[in-house]
């Protein structure tokens, strides 16, 4: 009875509420789902890694947008593996982004085709500011871009300059071009002759530039060049120029600007995106005709007109080098902000588009750099009145396809590339041997001419495409076999020959090495730095050392601006107080410059779009120039700055950290002497001549000590001259206060 009662009681017990049960079930269900999903993901990743062999070179094109066509063609030709929807684990060798580095923040390895903050650096204001700084330090070398004012901040200076020109009655009447800071494709650009024609209503920042009216004309049309440059790496600096480019023509015959024609954009602007809308746009397919031509055809035309086109090309190369060297310090600052030291991140490379105008005297003028130059291969064409269609543009293909193909060849991991090619070759040789021994018949005679480009027509079926590739691979293989002999086709069917076709590993290695050497030699990309302009550009790279100091004192990792404490620490640690700088003067300088640069750069943010507070790099550079002018007097600005940077690095003991990079310069500094590229060497000539890559500092010290025992008059004079310069005080006229040894001298 009692038992049945308790049973009844238990039955009467309230059941758990419906709500709680559902909650619990939902939780269970979700957990189950999550586990299933994780399992599936694991399986997918496993399958991915199974299908993609270890040595396949993988390219993520999921964010390539308009660059996809040209990229896909190049990937196909090179036999790489494309991931059009990206890879789950984000582990591709190359990630191709259409616009910014920050497009996929989940990438922690491989390479990305954009540098952090590059679109900011290539915006007109930042670019021309970087160039202005260089012009200030090297006035004669940086004269390849128009005079620039930054509006609205410098509106007063700009209008004063126009007024002065009017007063001087400059002929022809000066014209200026106004461009929005972050504009592209000719958007928002206009010409003006009076300052009051400038409209600041949009609230945007602009640059105002001297309008270059005396331009070189071809067939009476104005044109500019689009030069492609591959910036392969920042540390160490390495960049290439593409030997083919484009020339974009205006579509109305050019006339000097007058009040009447000043608004004719088809006459004064050469942007393709603008001129293609003109009724007179010439779409000729011939290289040397039409409103878009190849760079080489225009250079040929210039040569035919009796001018030295090689000289023009050399000047363009120099402009590219000087411009890149000018923006590298900014790039380094941005780079450390996006990928602070210690954080894993991808390495970067970038294809840049330089717009260059040619003056009547054939002097090239830099107009701008495009961080994301158009890589599309199609152009708009009017098939019937009002009806437009996109068609493949042969000129774009001729220029952009080799550019991207060779860019990929340069940036993918070379070891993987070699391994990949070797495996491919081994497979083909095996296949060939098997097929010839099976059928007992000769293979088709090899194709003698190796096609470097596989053109895949839109209407080809997949099978046909595969066949094209296989035939090409076979012909390549034959050619490689033949390349050892006289170049003629050989009978690969004979037993001896067949045996010799199965090559040893070392033979294959050698062949693959040769293959890449020739591929890179035949590349349309020519290395400018360090191969050709290393020495010439060395002296312009002083600002990278200033950027190094700035990064050193940033304080917060990943920041773009230095705070007041950071700036004070800079002054203290670099012992600027010994040079007579008080804490108060350091603080005043900081506040003054921070305000000035906030006013100058109201729109500037970091690459990730965050606006931080403090003194930006350009402000810090201004501070360094000011301190150098006050406390490290020397005959030229660059020498003053060098003295300051030497002093700071010496006090921070930075010199030994970058020993490997700056070996020659460090030898000099360690000896308490100054290093000047190509000009003043305080070091005895004999010692310099003996210097090799292997020379250690100790060797040099010994050599110098020997020399110091019997110093020549010349050496003593040089040394005294240098010491005087270090303590020369501009405030006390030209009087030398005292002659002491500089702190770092032996
Ligand atoms: P965007 O980024 O909008 O293309 P650009 O700086 O390239 O702006 O200028 C557009 C066009 O204007 C150039 O292709 C060139 O033809 C013309 N242009 C720009 N600056 C000057 C200048 N200083 N002198 C003469 N023409 C110029």
Automatic annotation (TrEMBL):
Ligase recorded as keyword: yes
Origin: domain of life: Eukaryota
Transmembrane regions: none
GO CC list: ciliary basal body
Record has Nucleotide-binding as a keyword: yes
Chain segments carrying region Disordered: 430-451, 476-504
GO MF annotation terms: ATP binding; tubulin binding; tubulin-glutamic acid ligase activity
Protein name per UniProt: Tubulin polyglutamylase TTLL11-like isoform X4
Native source organism of the sequence: Crassostrea virginica
Gene: LOC111125930
């Amino acid at each position: 009875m009692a038992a049945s009662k308790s049973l009844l009681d238990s039955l009467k017990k309230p059941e758990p509420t419906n709500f709680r049960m559902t909650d619990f079930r939902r939780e269970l269900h979700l957990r189950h789902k999550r586990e299933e999903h994780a399992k599936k993901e694991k399986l997918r990743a496993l399958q991915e890694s199974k299908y993609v062999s270890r040595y396949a070179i993988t390219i993520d094109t999921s964010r390539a947008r308009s660059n996809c066509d040209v990229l896909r063609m190049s990937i196909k030709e090179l036999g790489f593996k494309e991931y059009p929807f990206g890879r789950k684990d984000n582990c591709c060798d190359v990630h191709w982004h259409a616009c910014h580095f920050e497009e996929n923040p989940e990438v922690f390895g491989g390479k990305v085709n954009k540098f952090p903050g590059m679109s900011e650096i290539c915006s007109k204001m930042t670019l021309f500011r970087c160039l202005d700084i260089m012009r200030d330090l090297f006035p004669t070398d940086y004269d390849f871009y128009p005079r620039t004012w930054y509006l609205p901040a410098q509106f007063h200076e700009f209008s004063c300059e126009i007024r002065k020109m009017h007063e001087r009655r400059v002929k022809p009447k000066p014209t200026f071009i106004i461009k929005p800071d972050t504009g592209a494709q000719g958007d928002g650009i206009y010409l003006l002759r009076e300052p009051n024609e400038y409209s600041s209503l949009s609230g945007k920042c602009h640059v105002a530039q001297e309008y270059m009216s005396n331009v070189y004309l071809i067939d009476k049309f104005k044109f500019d060049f689009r030069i492609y440059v591959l910036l392969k790496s920042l540390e160490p600096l390495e960049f290439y120029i593409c030997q083919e480019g484009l020339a974009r023509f205006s579509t109305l015959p050019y006339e000097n600007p007058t009040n009447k024609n000043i608004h004719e954009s088809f006459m004064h602007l050469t942007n393709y995106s603008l001129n293609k809308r003109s009724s007179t746009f010439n779409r000729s397919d011939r290289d040397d005709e039409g409103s878009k031509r190849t760079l080489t055809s225009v250079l040929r035309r210039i040569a035919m007109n009796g001018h030295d086109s090689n000289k023009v090309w050399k000047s363009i190369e120099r402009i590219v080098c000087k411009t890149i060297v000018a923006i590298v310090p900014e790039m380094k600052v941005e780079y450390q902000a996006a990928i602070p030291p210690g954080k894993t991140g991808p390495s970067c490379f970038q294809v840049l588009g330089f717009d260059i105008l040619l003056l009547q005297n054939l002097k090239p003028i830099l107009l701008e750099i495009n961080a994301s130059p158009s890589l599309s291969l199609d152009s708009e064409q009017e098939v019937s009145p009002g009806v437009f269609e996109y068609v493949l543009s042969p000129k774009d293909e001729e220029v952009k396809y080799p550019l991207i193909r060779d860019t990929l060849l340069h940036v993918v991991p070379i070891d993987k590339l070699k391994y990949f090619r070797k495996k491919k070759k081994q497979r083909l040789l095996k296949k060939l041997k098997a097929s010839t021994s099976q059928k007992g018949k000769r293979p088709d005679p090899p194709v003698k001419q190796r096609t470097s480009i596989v053109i895949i027509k839109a209407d080809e079926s997949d099978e046909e495409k595969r066949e094209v590739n296989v035939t090409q691979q076979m012909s390549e293989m034959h050619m490689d076999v033949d390349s050892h002999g006289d170049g003629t086709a050989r009978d690969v069917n004979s037993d001896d020959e067949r045996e010799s076709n199965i090559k040893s590993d070392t033979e294959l290695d050698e062949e693959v090495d040769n293959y890449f050497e020739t591929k890179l030699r035949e590349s349309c990309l020519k290395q400018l730095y360090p191969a050709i302009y290393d020495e010439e550009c060395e002296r312009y790279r002083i600002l990278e050392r200033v950027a190094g100091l700035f990064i050193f004192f940033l304080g917060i990792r990943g920041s773009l601006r230095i705070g007041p404490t950071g700036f004070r620490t800079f002054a203290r640690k670099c012992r600027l107080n010994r040079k007579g700088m008080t804490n108060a003067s350091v603080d005043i300088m900081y506040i003054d410059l921070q305000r000035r640069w906030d006013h100058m750069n109201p729109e500037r943010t970091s690459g990730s779009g965050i606006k931080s507070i403090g003194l930006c790099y350009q402000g810090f550079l201004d501070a360094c120039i000011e301190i150098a002018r006050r406390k490290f007097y020397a005959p030229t600005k660059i020498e003053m700055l060098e003295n300051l940077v030497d002093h700071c690095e010496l006090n921070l003991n930075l010199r030994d950290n970058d020993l490997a990079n700056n070996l020659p310069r460090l030898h000099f500094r360690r000896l308490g002497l100054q290093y000047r590229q190509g000009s003043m060497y305080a070091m005895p000539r004999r010692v310099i001549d003996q210097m090799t890559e292997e020379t250690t500092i100790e060797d040099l010290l010994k050599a110098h000590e020997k020399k110091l025992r019997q110093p020549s008059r010349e050496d003593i004079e040089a040394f005294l001259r240098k010491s005087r310069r270090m303590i020369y005080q501009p405030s006390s006229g030209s009087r030398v206060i005292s002659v002491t040894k500089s702190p770092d001298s032996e």
